[in-house]
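Subject: Protein record for review, amino acid sequence with backbone structure tokens
How to read it: Take the token row as a discrete description of the fold.
Enclosed: The protein record, placed directly beneath this head.
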Amino acid sequence: MAIRKKASSGGDIDWYLISIDRLKQIGFVLFILLLGGAGYWFIHNEKGNPRANAESAIADARLALNTLAASKDFPNRRSEFERAQKKLEDANTLFGSAKYVDAQGAAVESQTISRAAVSGGDSGNGDAQFITVEGDVQFQKSTNSDWHHAEMRVPLYNGDWVKTGDRASAELVFNSNGSLYTVGPNALLEVYAAVQPGSSKKNNAVQMQVGTVEVATIDQASSVRTPGTQIVVDSESTTQVGVDNTKSTSVVSTKGSASVTPKSGGEAVVVNSGEKVSASPEGGLGPVKKLVLPPALKSPSDNQVFQVTDESKVEFAWEPQAGAASYQLQVSRSRLFSTLEINSKRQKITASAKVTSEGAFYWRVASIGADGEVGPFSPFRRFRVSGGRDATSAGGINSTDTTPPALTLKRPQPIGGAYYIIEGTTEPGSTVFINEEEVDVESSGHFKKLIVFAKIGQNAVVVKAVDPGGNQTVQSQTVLVEE
């Protein structure tokens, strides 16, 4: 208790008498405040300190790597050991450069690789894998400098490189979310699948050095990094990204939306379907530009059959598109359009081409604006050129063919989680539907499609092949998706 006293001399000086118990109470309160302040400082300056976090992550990664090296299964896990060791070396290098956040990310990834290998988990399918390879496509592992020819289902991991030659293309699918990356000719890119610190979730992306890539997402976003920007493609969207020889970037959204952020930081720019934005090598973003939409295709109809004769021609036609000053017609033997038989600018909405060889062909058209900017291409159509029989017996519209097309299915290929590849062969020129959704068929009759199943447990897959004469063959498969 404090008691106020008046100075005996009648002056204006006051003082207080404070009991020992009161002093103890005040001292206890001050102690609690000091202790709380020290705890706050520790949490925000030590526990949340990027340097301390990186040091801890590197120590954990080193311990996990040593555990892997001492495991009985080490002889069978050398590839995982080398990848984990490489990531740990990267983490140490980044730490030495004071890039603590990046060092922590690399260390966490090293630790994840080691622990998955020790537990017997794999990553035999990698972070991504090739599902289509056309022409000269090569890949390089992050652990060495050798280039290897790519083949379907070859696994790719974080830090691996992919390059395509002239008239070459490839499709990569990321196993964690099913995002499809279609790589164009003369491209060089790095696979980037970083584990988020504190979780097992991966951010899937590619680092483009030069060339083009089209990203098609399903139910999760995916990214593309370029010399000056980072592009995040939203779920259920398709975006085309190009990097030219000057390291400038162009981004075109053909479905859904994407956001483009300068690498140096700053506000993101949203690009919606039918829009384009360009960026300088330093990441300076230009204005968002509206492109002219593609025209609707009229003829030839999808899967139409033509006969090789001295006078036979294919007549192309499409609907006029508002705002288009001209059009770009492309015809290819590849559904990825890695090679072009025709690449012609047209003022009219028609074109004709002489039929000279057999096989399956794909065609598409883009609108060109008054400023000369080429917009996105239309979805392609196919037509088939046949020889040795007349068009009717080859399966034309008036065909009397009543034989159902052959249909052979492979066992569904799991690539992680609820994602499966459905693959098979049918009669060339036939149309294939998987669960009522049309899929692309190559000139050889081969087809494949990435399917994501929405429910846990048994899922039915119905595959239907329809030849040009209207005959059809239906087969079904069952896929068991585990939680």
